[in-house]
Amino acid sequence: MTRVERVMLLRSISLFKFCSVEETVRIAEIAERVTFSAGQEIFRANESARALYCVVEGRVRLYDARGQERMVGPRDAFGVLEILSGRLRRNTAGALEDTVALAIAADDFFDLLSNNVEIVKALFREILDGEAAQTGGEAAQTPAALL
Questions:
Q1: SS3 (DSSP) at 40
Q2: In angstroms, rounded to a whole number, what is the distance separating the alpha carbons of residues 70 and 56?
């Protein structure tokens, strides 16, 4: 996947919709293409969060010990809040089918954020807009797209 393809994909993901093209290029530079076979575990609940993921092709199932689950597909991001909060994974993630994703390592992401306040502002804007849309106004819940 070329850098231009990574930029185009990242621009289509809601998490990065408020980032400028230049900011998205910076994010694309640290995104790594990864593949998962159908049935392959991506991460487990209660593990350290080492990366966030943006699905390019395929589908991923996220589920917790209580049996709650959700599916993510192309142009969806997952594993974001644990990266931003420094918490352990809340869910287990597994590929439902052969899946291609962009992985953004936590350390690289924080290095990028530490030098780019505009990206930080864009991420906060998306998180807050997503929460407001879900609650019909004032933010009170976490948008499912970020889990």
A1: coil
A2: 17
CA–CA separation, 113 and 121 (whole Å): 10
Given a contact cutoff of 8 angstroms between Cβ atoms, the answer to whether 38 and 64 are in contact is no
Nearest by Cα to 16 from 125, 132, 90? 125
> Strand order in 99-105's β-sheet?
31-36, 99-105, 51-57, 77-78
The tens digit of pLDDT for each residue in 1-41 reads 888 889 999 999 888 888 889 989 999 999 999 999 999 99
- Spatial neighbors of 96 by CB under 8 A, at least 6 apart, are 38, 58, 59, 60, 61, 71
Q: Quick one: pLDDT band at residue 135, thresholds 50, 70, 90? A: very low
**Strand ranges across the sheet with 41-43:** 41-43, 92-95, 60-63, 69-72
- pLDDT surpasses 80 at 113: yes
Other Cβ atoms within 10 Å of 18 Cβ, number: 17
The pTM of this model reads: 0.82
**Helix (H/G/I), strand (E/B), else coil: 49:** coil
Confidence of residue 146 (pLDDT cuts 50, 70, 90): very low
